[in-house]
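Tutorial sheet, problem 5. The two components below are modelled jointly, 1118 residues in total.
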Amino acid sequence: MMPRSNPTVSLARLIVVWPLFVAATLNAADGQSYDEPKVTDEDRDHWSFQPIVRVCPPAVKQGSWPENSIDRFVLDSLEQVSLSPAPQADRATWLRRLKFDLQGLPPTREEIISFQADTAVDADARLVDRLLASPAYGERWAQHWLDLARFAESDGFEHDLVRGEAWRYRQWVVDALNDDMPYHRFIESQIAGDLIDSGADAIATVFCMSGPDMPDINEQDLRRHDRLNELTSTIGASLLGLQLHCCQCHDHKYDPISIGDFYRVRTIFEGAIPELKRGEMPITLARQPAPLSPRIYHRGEIGHPGQFVKPRPPRIVRPVPDEETFDSGDPRQAFVRWLFHQDNPLTARVIANRVWQHHFGDSLCENPNDFGIVAAGPSHPELLDWLATEFRDQDWSLKRLHRVIVLSAAYRQASYCDGESEISAKHFARSVAKDPDNDFLSRFPRRRLEGETLRDALLCVSGQLNTQYGGPSVMPPLPPELLSTLLKDQWRTSNARGDHVRRSIYVFARRNLRYPMFEAFDRPDAGATCGRRDRSTTAIQSLLMLNGDFTFEAARQLRDVVLRPVLSSASGEEVQPAARVNLTAGQWHESIDRLYFRVLGRAPTDFEMGTLADWRDSSDRGSGDALLLVCVALLNSNEFLYID
Amino acid sequence: MPPTPVPGNGRRSFLLSAGGGFGGLALAAMGSPMGRAAASAPRRNSWYSADRARVKRVVWLFMHGGPSHMDLLDPKPELARLAGQPIPPSFGGVKTRRAVSQNPLLGPVKPFRPHGQSGLEISEFLPQIAKHADDLCVIRSMHGDSVNHPQSVYQMNTGSILMGRPSVGSWVAYGLGSECEDLPSFVVLPDPRGGLKGGPPAWGNGFLPASYQGVTMRAGDQPILHLRPPAGLSQRDQRRTLDLLQLLNREHLRSRGGDDELEARIEAYELAFRMQVAATDLVDFSDETAATLDRYGIARRETQDFGQRCLLARRMLERGVRFVQVYSGNTAGWDAHSNVLGNHNQHCLATDQPISALLEDLKRTGLWDDTLVIWGGEFGRMPMSESGTGRDHNPWGYSLWLAGGGVKGGMAYGATDPVGLRAVERPVHVRNFHSTILHLLGVDPEALSYFHNGLGERLIGPADGVEVVTEILT
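Model answer (structure tokens):
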């Protein structure tokens, strides 16, 4: 198996073949004719349009390594290029990885100690179940979905008006994930929630309406046109892994998707968005008496309407839609049925790939939002199909999919050589040399914390985190220099101090101003669906972490929370730690030990202990102050910012 | 031809190969304080040609709200003649933001005079800028696509009326990298009163990595957010902390060799430290003479703010910042719906003198020849009156000017119709204006692209027919 299938071959084929098809000429309503390219069987040869195949996990040589089927696929591909998997990460590393991964939080000292002590064979599985059952799981994973939903709680553009009820959608996502709502139901609610029985799920359709909006525009028909096109592009990229957006103006240059396909998909939603009026801001879908403008718009311009079209999915994707259900019932419900039809090759692959991506940092495909011709296909196609099948067979349960992934041996690999064993050193030298991009997963990929997780981690290790669940969004304080770039009253700092230290998922998402730490650490701008964040390293991040009040306050709280038990155990009573307190060598030692557990989830090494003791001795300040600086350093350290 | 597909490589080798194959430019970009993007550093600089490059840097004076071309840069005697009458039907219908199309025409509110050797006509609103007439290249036939502020602010800054595309400054930071070791490549100096219509997305990075977005700076003690240690941490303690941090980071890296992201972060902290010094030095005007400060109008209330920011812009250009934007105008800005004379008096008074000083300094310091100066808003204004003495938005025809390296001075290019309603002669769409900026920087606008969503996405936009306005180039 070749990792990252090279797209050149199929690309070349398409360039030759695609434009040469005899095109069907359709008569446009206003006389503009449109030659729609046909879709051929050859187009469907592309991997992602092929049916999902249930594959038997392959036989492998190193039979003792695999813990489940995932590992057989991973190991098979490693063995084919004479590589072997990395040694296991130690349990503390695995715990930290898992906790950040599933909950976006660092493990506590107590968790580390009790997990280390739990030697039962099912200890790992019980831990995974416990982490998945916690509300913190939904608070972590909701952001992944909200990136795709280009979610923000304001319009953007000039006035950036607040969408007062938008937070309910954020909460709906958090709750749905915590309830392990089956994925088909999760999507059905977001596309057609207003049509389900009581319509209680109508708030879920904010997914469709979550893009930027300019309610005060003169041309309200243009506003509606732009919103529909934006929604169609989002549906394509997020649910189907297809870049439909290119086709709002013209037939896709490489993928077998036409402008007709784009506007057919758009027409599915035509009947759900009312005629817009100036100043009105609908944020959910609602069935309308009749679809307004089910047509093609040449060059994507409202001034160039073409022929009428019927609501249909893109022709390239199987199954052939049941036209009756699209034409007689509500096409959104028909579309959901089509998405989750047994023969649909994209829906399950796209989401399985995303789940994998968030566990392993990179997705199996080059671009999780593009399963088309140009982007590189999956590095492990059979594994992807196995995950998709498994997901479908397990009632579309995301939690079960997480479980099987994180309990694999692949997920248990170390990300680096701990330096103690020669075998390990050899392995990593070879892994880095032969698999520099880690395409074969010959080690665990190291990852930087995302901005939201970094903030949560800072709050958590410093003992400040308020774990209150749900409710309207909060506004923590912002630097005054930033406030001045906004219009008046666009950011009203929450009154309650406790609201300033809620989890990041509850921080108000203003489209025109991302919270500084989120922005600096690559949160997408909610202008378009985002399936994969950038991962930049900048001096602006360093300034924010080194000089920002938020980190410094976390460092101060961290010092106090570390010192408190150290000082009280010495005097027998609770002592309020002061900056200039002088610690005995033993107290310093204990403080550093506690500090390392809190921040890095491990005990300090002898080297570190020695370095810090020297450093303290060279300080002309009280130990309390010296400890504060150690806290600042640790909160800025690569080990804190990265997950091994 | 399709773009060259990126062969199956993950992001890490991507970076490493960028270092090797991209030469000095990529290295410069990586060494920039804005750091590097792990995901997609430019693979090759097929878009840049040193032979074509006429300038190295850009300063863009953005008159937010929409300055009135027929009162500043585009003399319209015919409009004066028809003042008070409705617009003749021969001009056809026009889309407007407010219902002004049937309102009586408003004649130019200030007289124009020819200036310099060239005789370029500029109104009495701008007496100081007018002294540089022979250096200005006025484009009188600009046009865009929206009558709304935020859409036009986005279009002027990003090429698209939609929200969320990368801004021109970010294109340039990405496409050319940094010339400066310890300041960002793309700096924005917003009006301190805030309220840009469209907000910070106007200088956003869109789908480009965050390291290319505009960094906002301001005059005064805290020019960049988080530039100074927090209260309670001295400079000396900060350095000690940093030394400890880097010691721990290097120890951490020792067993994780080959991870360039970790190394980059170690480097980023050193850059951040240097930036504290460099940015502090940047905003410290104590090495400027009293005469200089006076020329920028820093001692006078009306000109103090914009003067400070123009001087800051000059100091940035001297230090190698690639792209500087200086905004004039808070929420209302130049948006003279009710009283063009009053509004423009105020804004011209605030900006005319400082801009003139900036132009002088660029000449004097030798930066002129490789700096491009841009002056303009997101659109112009209508010939019809609004509320008697005001004017509504006009994206269909308006003016802006360029100066500096590579552009002809003393020139008026293109024309609007006799009342200034639409660009009619040699019209310049915003997209072609952008492509001309790129061209002057040595960048092929058709080639500048970023690998995104499976395609090498052209930053100038997907539309065909991108043109450089070659007639204005020297």
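Marking note: Confidence is low (pLDDT under 50) at residues 1-43 of chain B. Full credit if you identified this.
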